[in-house]
Amino acid sequence: MVLKKMIDRYKAIGLKMTPQRLAILEYLDGNREHPSAEDIYRHVKKRFPTMSRATVYNTLETLRKRGLIMELSIDPMKKRYDPNIEPHHHLICLRCRNVLDVFMEFDVSVPEEARKDFVILGNHIEFYGLCSKCRNASHGEARNKEA
Amino acid sequence: MVLKKMIDRYKAIGLKMTPQRLAILEYLDGNREHPSAEDIYRHVKKRFPTMSRATVYNTLETLRKRGLIMELSIDPMKKRYDPNIEPHHHLICLRCRNVLDVFMEFDVSVPEEARKDFVILGNHIEFYGLCSKCRNASHGEARNKEA
DNA sequence: ATCTTTTTTAGAACCATTCTAATTTAATTA
DNA sequence: TAATTAAATTAGAATGGTTCTAAAAAAGAT
Predict the structure, then answer these.
(1) What are B74-103's pLDDT values in tens digits?
(2) Which residue from A65, A76, A127 is facing B123, i.e. has the nearest CB?
(3) Sign of the dihedral through C-alpha A59, A65, A70, A73
(4) Which of A10, B42, B98, B122 yields a CA-CA distance of 20 to 30 A from B89?
């Protein structure tokens, strides 16, 4: 459970721990769904009906700046968030947009001449394809518009 | 020049070739800037002042569906497009968001047990770091808000 | 030249995200 | 525990990217 660490870190840098933030942190803790801000908002709103979207966005931005979560550009329409900050990669279903983590390291170094003085600080591999559900169900699960 | 091929392909499937579409195709042909819809709109509007954003979006979607361009999820805020459909990867500057192509193949196969019945159809590697301009100029070129 | 179908257009609508300014609250200190 | 103060929350407005709409224009076929 990374939750406790997050809370401690929060306080250590002079940020206030509010019930709303705690709810967001709890939702994110161990979450493997790579949720969007709206996903998070919908969830925590159940417990805090007055919750504002701004709070979700602010909290996510604060967490990101502190390096406690990652912002993913996996979805063309919206940002998605990953509370797992271990470097890893993603398997993305082209049909239902679900995302599976891939905890592996690959040797993908780019030689000098190919990177033109660019300093490479990290990498992220998107594998795209079809998840087992979508591969079987010829219709079900569809959530996007590839064609 | 892939332009001619695109025009032929267009007609072959019964799509009409209009001056607006031609302008968009010409702008994309050989373009290595990974432009957004807005970038394209601004450019072609110079030549066609009545050009509508809808035309740009429609054309891009048509091209994408036909596999003539690729839609990139490189930028969290907007889609960007790549007329180069050869499989390749991208070097993304965290500071100015410029993108450099990497024409290399990497062995990134994911073993059975790691992909849980997922069928992998392709992959795309994002290398992120700092381009030479941004690395030198401590301020210039900044276009985003990493911190 | 006419006809049919597709495309273009301006603008409205929509969704994700950011901003705003007033109100509330966590944490500190007396 | 009450007062203080800096930070967080809130509803809603504003913004930016994208999609939709319905009417007008134009491409390609006959």
Answers:
(1) 999 999 999 999 999 999 998 888 899 999
(2) A127
(3) positive
(4) B42
Measure, in angstroms, how far nucleotide C7 C1' is from residue B39 CA: 21
Q: Residue A146 above 90 pLDDT?
A: no
Q: What angle do CA A92, A93, A99 make, to 5 degrees?
A: 45
pLDDT value of position A2:
64
The domain spans of chain B are 3-80, 86-136
Residue nearest to nucleotide C24 (CA to C1'): A18
Looking at domain A3-80, which CATH architecture does it have? Orthogonal Bundle (1.10)
The string of DSSP letters for B87-144 reads --EEEEETTT--EEEE------PPPHHHHTTPEEEEEEEEEEEE-HHHHHSSSTT--S
- Per the CB < 8 Å rule, is A118 touching B126? no
Interface test with A, best of B92, B127, B141 (most A CBs within 10 A): B127
Cβ of B147 and A65 within 8 Å? Answer: yes
Report percent pLDDT > 90 for chain A.
72
- pLDDT-derived band at A70 (thresholds 50, 70, 90) equals very high
pLDDT digits (tens, 9 = 90+) for A121-131: 999 999 999 99
